[in-house]
């Protein structure tokens, strides 16, 4: 593997964590940037606004940012859309088709949230979309990564299922509660 490919692999593993929930390594994702021409997404990402484009209007189900080891040691929060909110709050019901969970992140700057990081997205799709991942769509978006990351993964990153660049997300979520991804007990909002 050449030096550039090694650096790209290291970058995405750092961005997503690098370890599964059980502590073992999972498949390392392909970090070659998807083809973008003048900021237009590749065929794997249809053009137009994503269904989670207004995620800041979703319900924040965490009372504040916390450090997620599985998301690169970044600070994160979880937002859930109206479709999935009741099931998410139940802590046991399956999330219905159309549920969207968005996890914005911030770089860890001396133990405090710093610059905006990528956002991690899960969307429950209709049966048959991706049977191996319980029909979850995964997405990784980073509109303006800092130069150190942009040099490795590109700018205006928008990777979505079925892109193999988000296969790592599915692999990791196989080892944890795929449906809910609840924050630690002490970081849950009271409802």
Description:
There is one protein chain. With 191 residues, the protein is of the alpha+beta class. It has one domain (3-35, 42-187). Helix content is 19%, strand content 23%. The protein is built from four helices and eight strands; from the N terminus they run αββββαβββαβα. It has helices at 3-16, 82-90, 147-153, 167-173, and strands at residues 59-60, 66-68, 74-76, 79-80, 100-109, 112-124, 136-142, 157-160. Strands 1, 2, 3, 4, 5, 6, 7 and 8 form an eight-stranded antiparallel beta sheet that branches. A hairpin with a 5-residue loop joins strand 2 (66-68) and strand 3.
Low-confidence stretches: 1-45
Structural class: alpha+beta
Number of strand segments: 8
Radius of gyration, Cα only, in angstroms? 16 Å
Q: Span between N and C termini?
A: 50 Å
How many discrete domains?
Answer: 1
> Helices and strands, in N-to-C order?
HEEEEHEEEHEH
Beta-strand residue fraction: 15-25%
The averaged pLDDT comes out at 73
Gist of the model:
This protein is an alpha+beta fold and 191 residues long.
From the structure above, extract its key features:
alpha+beta, 191 residues, 23% strand, eight-stranded antiparallel sheet, disordered N terminus
